[in-house]
Design brief:
Largest sheet: 4 strands, antiparallel
Order of helices and strands: HHEHHEHEHEHHHHH
Structural class: alpha+beta
Number of helices: 11
Shape: rod-shaped
């Protein structure tokens, strides 16, 4: 009988404040969708970091004859400017076989180096033509203009500065380039977007909490006669508060279900089908359904708990029991 009474009171409360309940559901749905989306974005960024950092190499480009010529012309200028484009380390000439052997030997002796691959000028020219052969500049490039290089894969890509500091500026070495530096900017932008989503989520969460408190306050005020009669007949404070708390919990749960639907729809229509980012952007290792489904219980739990706690706190102030 008590359970039936509580359920009937929940239905009455939701119907009396239908407009405010709808506003609570929408605000909770949007805030929790942003919460789930930010969790997925954070995991996606971490997944991309692991994927790309593992593929990122440190490239040590060696001086060729053209680099040595440009460096010599730059050094011979009266003003000492480097307008010729040469690097000071190439002034002593193109890299020698002895220097190449020394560099490769030192690389292989470093404990943080996972593997070392040598790329000749002809191989570099072939790869360049494969990637940029359709451009006008590619027709003017010759194999002797390409630089030999060592492609170094590290056990821990975070330690790229060790290799850079050990080899940059040495004779025969043109530049030391870390691919990780190029993708760090991308991840920095993605992290900023994630923080922005979290900020919007917090704003929507505050709005939802204020709506819940206001809805509970209006509901308690509209039923003050019923609660007064219940106090007179000896009903406990908890028994009087339960319908109000359950109303907020039901509204929050409905909002959480909508949030889950939005996350599932985003995965289905944006990533896998519809827009189909997984097929269109194959360079990104997108998350699968397992990651999305793993976040749904958190969304449902918060959607149920947050309104209940907000209603309980509001009742202590607005419901005199």
């Amino acid at each position: 009988m008590r359970a039936q009474f509580v359920m009937s009171e929940i239905g009455v409360g939701l119907r009396r404040n239908l407009t405010m309940t709808f506003a609570v559901i929408i605000s909770v749905a949007l805030s929790l969708a942003l919460f789930g989306g930010s969790m997925l974005m954070s995991e996606q960024v971490s997944r991309m970091k692991g994927f790309w950092y593992d593929k990122a190499n440190v490239s040590i480009y060696l001086c060729n004859k053209q680099d040595a010529q440009e460096a010599g012309e730059a050094a011979a200028k009266p003003d000492g400017s480097a307008g010729g484009g040469g690097v000071a380390t190439c002034r002593k000439g193109a890299v020698t076989e002895e220097q190449k052997k020394q560099i490769e030997s030192e690389l292989k002796q470093m404990s943080l180096v996972k593997s070392v691959a040598y790329e000749s000028a002809d191989e570099a020219y072939k790869h360049y033509q494969e990637q940029y052969g359709h451009t006008a500049l590619a027709s003017s490039i010759t194999p002797d203009q390409m630089q030999e290089s060592f492609r170094v894969k590290l056990k821990n890509p975070e330690k790229y500065k060790v290799v850079t500091s050990a080899f940059a500026g040495r004779d025969g070495i043109h530049t030391v380039d870390d691919q990780r530096q190029a993708i760090d900017d991308l991840f920095r932008i993605l992290n900023y977007l994630n923080f922005a989503a979290l900020g919007i989520m917090l704003i929507m969460l505050i709005v939802a909490l204020l709506l819940i408190v206001n809805t509970v306050r209006v509901s308690a005020f509209s039923r003050r006669r019923e609660t007064g009669i219940m106090r007179l007949v000896g009903a406990s404070s908890f028994y009087i508060q339960v319908p109000f708390i359950m109303e907020a919990a039901v509204a929050g749960l409905i909002g959480a279900l909508f949030a889950c639907a939005m996350l599932v729809s985003g995965q289905y229509f944006v990533i896998d089908h519809g827009v189909g980012l997984r097929d269109k952007i194959q360079l990104i290792d997108f998350m699968g359904w397992g990651s999305v489904l793993a976040k749904l219980p958190y969304v449902l739990f918060i959607g149920l708990l947050m309104p209940s706690v907000a209603a309980f706190i509001a009742l202590r102030k607005y419901l005199k029991v």
